[in-house]
Amino acid sequence: MKARPRFYSAPHFKTFWEEGNGKDLLDWSRATPDMNQFNQYAHLYHEVDSLGDAAVQETYLKLPYHEASALVEKYSASPVSPAEEAPANLKQLFLQMQEVPEWFNADLANAGARFCMRTGTNGLIILRDFTLMGGYDFAFLNKPLVFTGALKRGAVKRLKDTLEFWVNVTRENAMQTNSEAYRLIVRTRLLHAYARLKIRQKSDDWDYENWGTPINMWDMVATYTGFSLVFMQGLRKLGITISDDEEKGVFHLWKYIGYLLGIPADYMPDDKKDAVERFYLWTATQGAGDKDSAYLAKALLDENLESTILRYDFQRKNLRYLHICCNWYLLDEDINERLHIPKVPLPNVFPSIIRSANALTQKIFPLHRPKSYRKLVDLGHKQQMKVLDDYLTYTPKDFHY
């Protein structure tokens, strides 16, 4: 069974790539997508992280939860040797993750990490209001959230988990074996596998032909391309300048993160041209946003009202308004409409203020001067860690696979 480019001629596909943010991606990257290459990637729609699945089958699906968790934590926190007495597939997973591939360049990955840090709150706005919210319009990509019941558990914790993952993996030298970022990647990889196996085990209604295998490789590549390509596209909309080294670094960083998550390195793009051409092919498999998409969008907006980080109700309502302004500024109009993003007065004022502030900041701290650049990195890092600390403080710590 292979994926089909079902939506290549659909209005939502054409509008995105001919008039909307897709056109902006094509212009920026100078990519030349070729639908004749679709079949080179179609197999990914039913390819999965088989090693992650096997590790979950002999731990979380076989042992009591606390025993499985203790094993995973033990081998996440210290190096695993080939002679280790451990479940075979779990040991193999850790041996694979501990092996640093020859292509990995730590300096290049750190250039990407420094860029992510220097974006400060800009980066967090883009992650939430552009990458995450925009991703909800790809209807089939989000079906695992429906089938695992994540829709009912609310957006507060889901956002906290995403923020905790992103902030930790985008620090300099973060991906050292047994580091906090490494351990979060282990948890995320096993969470993907657990969700996939549970859906395949219990959900007779899963549409394999149209949605692919749950949490398949092509969907995963598209998701993590959102953290590189789409992330940088959104920041450009807010007036953030991106150097060639930073751009290369962001793609390299996420290529390595993808490798640790079980995605073969050849599947991850190395630059924006490659990323756009592959992303174009994948989007032809995705239906436009549906009622589940709109539900996810509403939950994300309402997270501002549910979170207890801000003390007063008027503060929460104002923050929700600001995020809605960013949605309308960053996302295509038809996507906002499909996601039922409310219309608000003066939606461009707040994003325009952000653009002006970024232009001024980059004049005061010229990016080509190492000391100025380092100040921006350190400042952005502090901003992001403050937001993460707020979410960790005010969100229940009830992570389960």
UniProtKB/TrEMBL annotation:
Spans through the membrane: none
Domain ER-bound oxygenase mpaB/mpaB'/Rubber oxygenase catalytic per the UniProt entry, residue ranges: 139-342
Coiled coil residues, start to end: none
GO MF term (any one): oxidoreductase activity
InterPro entries referenced in this protein's UniProt entry, alphabetically: Lcp-like (IPR037473), MPAB/Lcp_cat_dom (IPR018713)
Domain of life: Bacteria
Record protein name field: DUF2236 domain-containing protein
Organism, scientific name: Marnyiella aurantia
